[in-house]
Amino acid sequence: MDETRQQALRALPSVEELLSHPIAALLVERFSRPQVLEAVRTAVDGARRSILADVSPGRFSVEWASGALGGPAASEALLAEAAALLDAWAQPSLRRVVNLSGVVIHTNLGRSALSERAVERVVEVARTYCNLEYDLKSGTRGTRESHVEALLKRVTGAERPSQSTTTPELLCSFSWRWPPGAKCWSRGVSWWR
Q1: Cα(34)–Cα(134) distance, rounded to whole angstroms?
Q2: Each residue of 15-74: pLDDT tens digit?
């Protein structure tokens, strides 16, 4: 390794120096110390890798290092990188999208949209414990399917409905179109009406 890179690496501020910077204190207020610590370590590691790889004109190239390191600009640049990481990590991964596919029940787009009443019920039940797999009548372990089985029997006319990852949504959406005696196939599960 040449002398310029060694100097650039030595001039990188330490993680502890960065954590004692006033900007880091503001980040800790917004996030948490463990999160800021991880982001600062990631930023310093990225700068170190860029210097070693001499990615020019990268944000943390040897040229940048030779001009900025050793002063407040290095700490501020690394903390800005850490702040950007923290903001990215804080973003929810699930976002609203518009379904223009023409497919009503689209597996990749979160299935079907729920009615407002259904959303209210999910929120109501999700706020506390619920009887997801507990039979309140018998006081014993139940099944998740028991909550939709009676509804599916009524909607489809099936004697013993079987739930898979897509079948209930399909049945609830399209069963009214089926003529008596029609059969529906979904991932190897058949339904008779």
Answers
A1: 38
A2: 999 999 999 999 999 999 999 999 999 999 998 888 888 755 455 655 555 555 556 778
DSSP per-residue letters across 139-191: TEE--TTHHHHHHHHHHH--SS----SSHHHHHHHHGGGPPTT-EEEETTEEE
Q: How far apart are CA 77 and CA 69, in angstroms?
A: 10
Residue 111, classed as helix, strand or coil, is strand
Q: Is the dihedral of CA 131, 134, 135, 139 positive or negative?
A: negative
pTM of the model: 0.57
Cβ count near 65 (within 10 Å): 23
36: closest CA among 49, 50, 51, 23? 23
How many residues are listed for the chain in this entry?
A: 193
pLDDT at 14: 92
Give the tens place of pLDDT for each residue, 111-133: 777 889 988 988 998 899 888 88
Both tokens of 134, joined, read: 């507990």
**CA proximity to 81, closest of 11, 6, 8, 15:** 15
Q: Which long-range contacts (CB under 8 A, 24 or more apart) does 62-66 make?
A: 62/4, 62/5, 62/8, 65/7, 65/8, 65/11, 65/12, 66/4, 66/7, 66/8
